[in-house]
Amino acid sequence: MNSNNVKKSADLNRVREVLRLDKNNGYLYWTERTANRIKVGDRAGSLKKEGYRQIRLDGNVYYEHYIVWLMTYGVWPENDIKHMDGDRANNKPRNLMEEDYG
Questions:
Q1: How many CB atoms lie within 10 A of CB 70?
Q2: CA distances (Å), 98 to each of 40, 56, 94, in order?
Q3: Quick check: 26 and 95 in contact, CB under 8 A?
Q4: Which DSSP string do the residues of 82-100 spell out, in sequence order?
Q5: In whole angstroms, what is the distance from residue 80 CA to residue 88 CA?
Q6: pLDDT tens by residue, 47-69
Q7: Where are the chain's structural domains?
Q8: Entry pTM
């Protein structure tokens, strides 16, 4: 899956209906079965070769770190999200920072 297929926004209410964020480790877990392969309680998403985790929800693909940001701050980021430690799979809220292009 390439980044051209990744959605640029998600609905906070829908995300909160089906996912739970563990802020200690930055992991998202399914709270509702949204597809046949989904099991409630399983970690959401999969790690892609470029190092980012992606989640498929309602036919759309999202980067996990954007969903973590959305669930933490209640808004979709206006700019790109940077992993402060450089580890693209470390999606702990305290490790995420919105890029400043100004």
A1: 21
A2: 30, 22, 11
A3: yes
A4: EETTS-TT---GGGEEE--
A5: 13
A6: 999 999 999 999 999 999 999 99
A7: 3-92
A8: 0.90
